[in-house]
């Protein structure tokens, strides 16, 4: 009995690595941690006005260490999904877990796990850049020494050193976008959620942000971002989730998508093909 | 012309859409505006009484025309004063201006459309004076059907001239005074000027000349003598005498001349617009910037860890102090209130016999200070609208409150703290002024009134923020709309006045032996309600925010 139970446990622990020829018990904890699920969306539905299903029974499981691109046409349900993940809207059905914490029943714990860059960067315009960053650091409980070091680093990366002492109102659209991104990065959350983050950024900042997203994922964290720029998704994402009319119509790697549609030679044509067959 | 109609319709629908936020049921919006209209009824009756008495006095002397002219001048002046601060916001600083400037539209078309929308706003202010004026006239004179036709024509056209005047002034200022091509600076200076005007008006209304029993004396003051206010206004609003003559004698020629002046004024306005509008509208700053790099010491000073509630309250106060329209409406109003009281008392001059108070023995009546203290706290707590617009001021950024890891209840308390801090400072200022003016009152009175005021300030701010959470105005283009066109703010203001009035009325109506137990009872009840609301704030906030 004991031997049988051990075999079953070992088998279950190695379920994800079952294709390995020889189970390596020493490597088990690392394997489990690598596959740890960071965002879990389970059968989530959101209905507006009692009739319009903006999001219809979607499910997504996003593990650590991946960059996920969330793409879809206008009005497909991207922003509604992001609002539900971040606790701005409550789902009508289903549940959402961020690093195992339910966004509806454990909102504070779940919110500490992620940082969000909303699509509208016009926020607290009459605060100075430095005051906004300090405010965000207080809200996300970043200690004084760490925030000082991170702000200095982020200001250099985004070339904002000479703008921090000015009110956000005096910033250009791109600079406002940068200060909001810096406000998120200051707390170094496990999950980054970004709604159209590249909009308004100059090429250098856009490049820096993409690099940071890659580094963040490489450290075992998760990046989930919506975009309309398919080239960004193509170059950056480990997986893409395509949403149309409130339903996820594809979730996987771009290779899998290409494999399913061998006639398409670009992501743009793939995207159009998938949407048209939805 | 087709572009003008299309643009006017769009701008008007957009403005109307701002009033109804698209989420609130229409019936509730109508009810709220109905309530607001009811609040104006006392003012309408006061003006009606004043005009009616004036007509009664002047009709036997065949001078009704002077009263009509005075009323029209008053209407024009009200329109002019309201529009001089409205026009720059609509013509130059509104968000749609940037889009409209890039469309293939003539400057005259944009101006004419924006002017038409302003005109619709101004009708409301015009009617507040115009309706009691005509009602007062009808009470004393018999009129023909033609009179009503003339009344309708004049009512519809009366705000045009003052609106043209303020539009031309705004255009010239924006074109030739670069100092004002900064939104914040313009709003701050414009706001201070309007406050200065309000204070002067308050002093004028309280001056001994205006403190007469006979209400027609006010009108007489306006029209009598060569240097009367009316003769001064005649230069400012030359169309008015024609309108009043036309109405008195139903003279079509006079009406024609009146309309001709308006058409000429509109033509001048549009021609000036053609040459000056674009040059004034293009290239104004939002605010100033230095682009100075912070050194290590400055960084260290700026970046110290504080508690969430403290940092949130600090953010609220910073936004209130730095946003001109919030500063003037929420903080400025509060500090003007004590100044107005001082002006009122000073302008009473010798009529106030303060020395008589020295003869009274005040000992043993300290509990009389409780109800006035509560009334003052409730009034100050509500009148500044800081808590009553706390959620509305977030506008489209209200989502921020939902996604940060800070309980909603704590965020609400932090927002309320800003209102409480400003209210307490106002009360302190008021009490210092009161102590200087009435040093004969024992200090115990002030202490009891101050403590009572603080208790009421807490409840006042709690009620205000609950009101705004239940009905926030989140859809707005300009910050001004969040405080000036906000129903929660209005209800809080009038509600605060009402509760304060009831508390003071109780002081006068209650028998002497009941004042002490009832005052203490009310004070304890307010304190308990306040504590209960405070402890339940997170639950209430979560419930109300689900609807936002």
Automatic annotation (TrEMBL), chain A:
Record-linked InterPro entries? AAA+_ATPase (IPR003593), ABC_transporter-like_ATP-bd (IPR003439), ABC_Transporter_VariousFunc (IPR051782), P-loop_NTPase (IPR027417)
Lineage summary: Bacteria, Bacillati, Bacillota, Erysipelotrichia, Erysipelotrichales
Q: What is this protein called?
A: ABC-2 type transport system ATP-binding protein
A Pfam short name? ABC_tran
Kindly state which keywords UniProt assigns to this record, in alphabetical order: ATP-binding, Nucleotide-binding, Transport
Is Ubl conjugation one of the keywords? Answer: no
Transmembrane stretches in the record are: none
Secretion signal, residue range per the UniProt entry: none
Give the PANTHER family listed for this entry.
ABC TRANSPORTER ATP-BINDING PROTEIN ALBC-RELATED
Q: Give start and end of each ABC transporter domain.
A: 39-270
What organism is recorded for this protein? Longicatena caecimuris
Q: Does the record bear tRNA processing in its keywords?
A: no
Q: What GO molecular function terms would the record report?
A: ATP binding; ATP hydrolysis activity
UniProtKB/TrEMBL annotation, chain B:
Q: Classify the source by domain of life.
A: Bacteria
Protein's recorded name: ABC-2 type transport system permease protein
InterPro entries from the entry?
A: ABC_tran_2
Transmembrane residue ranges? 30-51, 71-94, 115-139, 145-174, 186-205, 255-278, 325-345, 365-391, 412-437, 443-467, 488-508, 514-534
Q: Which organism is it from?
A: Longicatena caecimuris
The UniProt keywords, alphabetically, are:
Membrane, Transmembrane, Transmembrane helix
One Pfam family here:
ABC_tran_2
